[in-house]
Write a structure and sequence with these properties.
single chain; 66 residues; alpha+beta; 4-stranded mixed β-sheet; 1 helix; 23% helix; globular; YpzH; BH1975 protein
Length: 66
Amino acid sequence: MEKNDNQIQGILAFITTNKERYLGGDPLCLFAKDAEELKEIANAIAEVFLADLFYLKDGDCLIIKK
């Protein structure tokens, strides 16, 4: 089976600064105190797992593995 580079293997984490959108569960859902902390957490996780970051319009972040 050939790997498609554009196909998402999964969502590793969801990070938000809004308590209303923090749901917990699977995938990993993290609550950051502010936008700066969100970016620090997101970059660290993405680096470790060689994953991509996708920032949503509302400031939340998805970490996806391709």
